[in-house]
Amino acid sequence: MVILIAIQVFITLLFFIFGWAILKKEAYGIISGFATRPKEEQKQLIENGFPQKTGRLFIFTGLGMLILLPLSFTSFIYAVEVQFGFMLVFLLGGIIYLSKYELPHKRKRSYMISISLFVVVMSSLGYLSFLGYQDYKLVMKEDSFEITGMYGDEWKFKDINKLEVLEKVPEVTVKQNGFGTASMAKGVFSVKGYGSSLLFIKHGASLEILYIEAGNTKIFINGKDITETRGWFEQLQKYAE
Questions:
Q1: pLDDT tens digits for 22-72?
Q2: Which residues neighbour 150 within 8 Å (Cβ) at sequence distance 6 or greater?
Q3: Residues 112, 114: Cα–Cα separation, whole Å
Q4: What is the per-residue pLDDT across 71-130, written as a single tens digit (0 to 9) for each?
Q5: Helix/strand/coil for 54
Q6: Residue 185 has what pLDDT?
Q7: pTM above 0.70, yes or no
Q8: In 3-state terms, the chain is what percent helix, strand and coil (to 5)?
Q9: Which of 91, 28, 97, 93 is nearest to 60 (CA)?
Q10: Separation between Cα atoms, residue 5 and residue 182, nearest integer Å
Q11: E-only strand ranges, the chain
Q12: SS3 state at 64
């Protein structure tokens, strides 16, 4: 959580710095593609207020992020999702609005590109979020167990080398390939003392964590409550004997 807050503060500061540089220092080169335009086009865009509006967009995006920052210090588990969701929607929506200040002969194309970008980015994030937030289960089969959902897989009971219940997840240092938010961690993460591991963790659910070593794979998983986590542990103990 500390790392996520630090990232949010850093991004917020960047928005303020870029906005200030554009508005007060006329550092229009910060704006993507502006410096490569012909001087005449740059002059027309400045007269239209395009770079100035872009600077204000950065400032207001940073201000919104700053206003939402206190959510990270509350019990609201979707604080990070709300903060970065606001940033994307406001910023991409602002880019569409800025097309209004484009040069007349490029305005239509600008609208088409910015709207397409908005649809593609939001659709992709929506789909990935849907997959990431899908629930997972630990399912017992005849000679193996399976963890369902995104990043899930199947392992043989005979390959279980270690099985135990931990009171908490060890420190996670790096996300390697996974879905990590304030409410859930799912995928491959580097865990202190364990190395590269598969995590299926619902934050704020079961305080106990089931740790499984199956072959070369290290797995940390918890259920919706302690009863479900303990149930998985007891079932695996029985099948793995």
A1: 999 999 999 999 999 999 999 999 999 999 999 999 999 999 999 999 988
A2: 131, 132, 134, 136, 179, 186, 187
A3: 6
A4: 888 867 677 778 989 999 999 999 999 999 999 999 999 999 999 999 999 999 888 777
A5: helix
A6: 86
A7: yes
A8: 55, 20, 25
A9: 91
A10: 10
A11: 138-140, 144-147, 154-156, 160-166, 172-180, 184-191, 195-202, 209-214, 217-221
A12: helix
Nearest partner of 166 among 218, 125, 240, judged by Cα: 218
Residue 135 has phi, psi (to 5 degrees) of: -70, 155
Residue 178 has pLDDT above 90, yes or no: no
Q: How many CA atoms lie within 13 A of 170 on its CB side?
A: 18
Could you give the dihedral angle defined by the CA atoms of residues 66, 68, 74 and 79, in that order, rounded to the nearest 10 degrees?
-120
84 Cβ contact list (under 8 Å, min separation 6): 8
d(CA 20, CA 23): 5
Q: How far apart are CA 91 and CA 196, in angstroms?
A: 35
Q: Torsions phi, psi of 179, nearest 5?
A: -120, 110
- Exposed/middle/buried for 204, CB within 10 Å: 0-12, 13-18, 19+? exposed
For helices 2-25 and 50-68, the axis angle rounded to 10 degrees is: 150
Provide the 10 A C-beta neighbour count for residue 226.
Answer: 14
Domain limits of the chain?
2-133, 138-240
